[in-house]
């Protein structure tokens, strides 16, 4: 059995000034290259889980290891560098900085990570190639970020998440602003690209319909004991 | 350095509001430095109202009072100096020249000064500037008058005009010396000193118009202008006199000698020292000016703070994206500090540019209107220091939005709450 990319044991998180934990997970393991769908309705602790996996928040107790890094033991600055080096993040929408060109937006993570800069090689060339693969044509690239459709913007966000081959891509409701057809296309595209780059994909959404696209999926409501106990 | 291009591009995206902020800071910098410059220039011009005169002598009163009535034509002498004392003291061996001053009459609100031709030869102001004539020349006859530039300009007098001197200082005086008019023989160039508001007549002229007066009223014995000329026109007393010494080192010795003069109670002052004393009395004014311009600067900085803080919410998404990509919270603070620093630096550069542009374009007009000249110099040490303080204040101010954004980004994590 290969080493898990993400492994967490007895993880618990409570917001400051709150007595109830919002997240309590006994065990979760993600294997390299896996595409994991985490389904959960709002309030199920999706965002909290992502903040923990990306090293933005710290768990109260339990083990959390990502790519073999013991995140809770690291300083906040090292966690930020870890995120820059190893994670690509795609939001629901508004992924792009409006004052940068499309190509500059794609290259942005490499400003903060030498590792990804080195892996990408010639930055501008790498960015353009990725945009080509995602059907953002030369012509389209000249436009202002805000003039792109939401679907096009999300594709640029994929390019940004994947530049410099980060090991893990985290997508937080990336399809919620897309219609059904665009949604399915986008998920296919994301899978293909993640496979090509050898990235593990963590895909979080409340959308039940995406369930059948994934081999691996979990319901956060079932896994998060904090919800289960408070519901009883 | 990876943040600088981001800062610049982000700021460029908000260039309209930020350029207005830069402009408001530039204007406050211009005002602050301008007030400081004008303050220093005003002091220099003030201290230079009279120069190269070693002593001013008048009846014993306060030094500031003597300076005020003899140089600035403000207020009155409490007492006069007898002609005998003047003659005695001006013939001291250390004395190079002596100029008698006789004040007390006026013309339509402007003071009339009785003096001699040495006045035009030895009077210096603004360092070493001599009196110059715009038209005409020095008086050579009893009933002639030389006008200061303002008197001629505001009353519209030309050469050859006749002027009637009023008795006393009130502009509403009914006691006019209308039987003995003075003819305008010269008009001085603008000096920027009280001299511009003075009419200069020969000392004998003052005696002549008073030859048939006694105790401030016209005596029944009437003398016309020609008859008056035949009288003894050497005055019995004068208001004050100025002394130039052969050697300035002797100043204090002569001063003591005059102060201890036992035939008449007299006071001798060193003009420079008394001018400085007077300037200190006026210095509250400059403190107020500086305080106002400092407040304008504070308003400018607060304006900048307002602009940046009001953009914080719309930039929350920007910060979340940067955080997701791996920016540290301190990168976020740095982003705001760099932005502020750029704004303040541009404001300072633009402000200095505007100030010098203004000074260069206004200087010729200023000289024409007031006779004052601005000596345009590069900012001095004190002003550079001031700019450094403003810069530091800008950095301090920038911590406010920086820390707010920092707190936002810690709270928001990857999900900005909008």
Fold and architecture overview:
The complex is a heterodimer of chains A (232) and B (418). Chain A has helices at 46-53, 76-86, 102-112, 114-120, 123-133, 138-141, 150-162, 180-197, 220-223, 225-231, and strands spanning 6-13, 23-30, 35-39, 61-66, 69-70, 87-90, 168-172, 200-205, 216-219. Chain A is α/β, with parallel strands linked by helices. Chain A has one domain (6-231): Rossmann fold (3-Layer(aba) Sandwich), CATH 3.40.50.300. In chain A, the strands form 2 sheets. A 5-stranded parallel β-sheet of chain A has the order 6-7-8-3-9, with helices on both faces. In chain A, strand 7, helix 8 (180-197) and strand 8 form a beta-alpha-beta unit. Chain B is an alpha+beta fold. Chain B folds into 2 domains: 3-46 and 283-414, no CATH class; 55-269, no CATH class. In chain B, helix 11 crosses helix 13 (381-412). Chains A and B meet through helix 1, helix 2 and helix 3 of A and helix 1, helix 11 and helix 12 of B.
Short description:
The complex is a heterodimer of chains A (232) and B (418). Chain A has 232 residues and is α/β, with parallel strands linked by helices. Chain A has helices at 46-53, 76-86, 102-112, 114-120, 123-133, 138-141, 150-162, 180-197, 220-223, 225-231, and strands at 6-13, 23-30, 35-39, 61-66, 69-70, 87-90, 168-172, 200-205, 216-219.
């Amino acid at each position: 059995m290969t080493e898990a990319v993400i492994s967490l044991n007895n993880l618990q998180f409570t917001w400051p000034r709150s007595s109830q934990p919002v997240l309590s997970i006994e065990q979760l393991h993600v294997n390299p290259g896996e595409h994991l769908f985490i389904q959960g309705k709002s309030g199920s602790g999706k965002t909290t889980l992502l903040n923990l996996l990306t090293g933005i928040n710290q768990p109260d107790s339990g083990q959390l290891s990502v790519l073999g890094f013991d995140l809770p033991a690291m300083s906040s600055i090292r966690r930020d560098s870890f995120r820059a080096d190893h994670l690509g993040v795609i939001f629901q929408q508004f992924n792009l900085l409006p004052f940068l060109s499309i190509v500059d937006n794609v290259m942005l993570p490499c400003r903060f990570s030498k590792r990804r800069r080195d892996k990408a090689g010639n930055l501008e060339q790498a960015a353009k190639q990725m945009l080509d693969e995602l059907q953002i044509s030369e012509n389209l690239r000249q436009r202002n970020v805000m003039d792109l459709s939401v679907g096009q913007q999300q594709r640029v966000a994929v390019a940004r998440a994947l530049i410099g081959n980060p090991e893990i891509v985290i997508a937080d409701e990336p399809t919620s602003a897309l219609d059904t057809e665009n949604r399915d296309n986008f998920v296919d595209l994301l899978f293909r690209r993640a496979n090509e780059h050898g990235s593990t994909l963590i895909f979080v959404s409340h959308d039940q319909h995406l369930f059948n696209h994934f081999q691996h999926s979990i319901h956060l409501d079932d896994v998060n004991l904090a919800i289960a106990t408070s519901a009883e | 350095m990876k943040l600088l291009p981001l800062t610049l591009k982000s700021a460029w995206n908000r260039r309209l509001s930020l350029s207005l902020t830069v402009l408001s800071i530039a204007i406050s910098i211009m005002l602050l430095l301008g007030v400081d410059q004008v303050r220093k220039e005003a002091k220099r011009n003030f201290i230079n109202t009279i120069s190269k005169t070693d002593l001013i002598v008048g009846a014993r009163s306060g030094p500031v009072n003597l300076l005020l009535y003899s140089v600035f034509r403000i207020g009155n002498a409490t007492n006069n100096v007898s002609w005998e004392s003047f003659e005695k003291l001006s013939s001291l061996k250390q004395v190079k020249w002596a100029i008698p001053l006789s004040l007390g009459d006026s013309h339509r609100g402007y003071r009339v000064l009785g003096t001699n031709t040495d006045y035009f030869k030895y009077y210096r102001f603004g360092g070493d500037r001599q009196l110059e004539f715009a038209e005409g020349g020095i008086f050579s006859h009893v009933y002639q008058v030389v006008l200061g530039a303002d008197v001629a300009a505001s009353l519209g007098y030309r050469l050859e005009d006749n002027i009637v001197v009023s008795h006393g200082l009130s502009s509403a005086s009914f006691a006019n010396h209308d039987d003995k008019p003075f003819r305008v023989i010269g008009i001085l160039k603008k000096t920027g000193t009280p001299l511009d508001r003075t009419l200069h007549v020969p000392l004998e002229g003052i005696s002549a118009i008073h030859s048939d007066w006694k105790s401030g009223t016209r005596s029944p014995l009437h003398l016309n202008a020609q008859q008056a000329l035949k009288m003894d026109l050497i005055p019995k007393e004068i208001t004050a006199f100025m002394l130039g010494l052969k050697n300035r080192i002797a100043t204090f010795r002569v001063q003591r000698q005059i102060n201890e003069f036992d035939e008449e109670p007299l006071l001798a002052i060193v003009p420079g020292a008394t001018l400085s004393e007077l300037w200190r009395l006026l210095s509250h004014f400059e403190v107020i000016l500086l305080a106002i311009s400092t407040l304008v600067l504070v308003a400018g900085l607060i304006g900048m703070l307002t602009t940046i803080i009001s953009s914080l919410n719309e930039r929350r998404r920007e910060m979340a994206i940067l955080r997701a990509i791996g920016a540290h919270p301190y990168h976020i603070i740095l982003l705001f500090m760099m932005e502020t620093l750029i704004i303040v630096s541009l404001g300072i550069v633009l402000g200095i540019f505007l100030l010098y542009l203004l000074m260069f374009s206004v200087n010729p007009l200023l000289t024409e209107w007031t006779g004052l000249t601005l000596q345009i110099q590069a900012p001095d040490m004190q002003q550079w220091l001031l700019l450094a303080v403003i810069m530091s204040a800008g950095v301090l101010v920038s911590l406010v939005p920086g820390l707010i954004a920092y707190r936002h980004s810690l709270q928001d994590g990857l999900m900005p709450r909008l």
